[in-house]
């Protein structure tokens, strides 16, 4: 007979919530900057910037979720993770967020594109979260409060729509930074709202759990993806904007006749 387990969402204190918020904000900032760049570009350049936006937002959200999960403990049972399902949750995050970002990047009607993109991206965030939760393996059964689940999905959709609206309407780097911090807070709120929906009926057992522990699998993967975000951040920060590129081209064209005259 199982008993209700005590859930600890921050086993390491403020470390995992704070670090997960930072990861969510970095992913959002990169995604917004890449989307802004995409909307100012055309052809293959626009597509490439949108692909970068999808990968950074999806990776940032996934890393945020699983960094937060490093601090998740249930009294009376170990927690392992199903590896294929966990990787699938990352792919779902990137692919569905990508669909939302491309809807905004190529949509003719901005309002309709925003609604469609926000809904798709938000559902992608929620799908990633609950698919990641489905990857949990423990001695017991997990159940959810439907109202809290619905609230977490609503937060995800609203946060995604607000982020895409910011990408369409905000160009200033300072404003994008503020929007990213708000988006990071919204994504973190969605995660912890979803976690408040969780109840675990623990059934103690001596049998070994399938899957990998968080430190065996989640931690190295989160560090790897976190490194990817920081490297991408440096690339985006150093790459010239459309205006800078045009100014550079103009300067080069002005210099060319002089060089020919010699």
Automatic annotation (TrEMBL):
<feature type="transmembrane region" description="Helical">
    <location>
        <begin position="174"/>
        <end position="194"/>
    </location>
</feature>
<dbReference type="Pfam" id="PF03707">
    <property type="entry name" value="MHYT"/>
</dbReference>
<keyword id="KW-0812">Transmembrane</keyword>
<dbReference type="InterPro" id="IPR005330">
    <property type="entry name" value="MHYT_dom"/>
</dbReference>
<feature type="transmembrane region" description="Helical">
    <location>
        <begin position="147"/>
        <end position="167"/>
    </location>
</feature>
<feature type="domain" description="MHYT">
    <location>
        <begin position="12"/>
        <end position="201"/>
    </location>
</feature>
<keyword id="KW-1133">Transmembrane helix</keyword>
<keyword id="KW-0472">Membrane</keyword>
<feature type="transmembrane region" description="Helical">
    <location>
        <begin position="48"/>
        <end position="72"/>
    </location>
</feature>
<feature type="transmembrane region" description="Helical">
    <location>
        <begin position="84"/>
        <end position="107"/>
    </location>
</feature>
<feature type="transmembrane region" description="Helical">
    <location>
        <begin position="12"/>
        <end position="36"/>
    </location>
</feature>
<feature type="transmembrane region" description="Helical">
    <location>
        <begin position="114"/>
        <end position="135"/>
    </location>
</feature>
<protein>
    <submittedName>
        <fullName>NO-binding membrane sensor protein with MHYT domain</fullName>
    </submittedName>
</protein>
<feature type="transmembrane region" description="Helical">
    <location>
        <begin position="214"/>
        <end position="238"/>
    </location>
</feature>
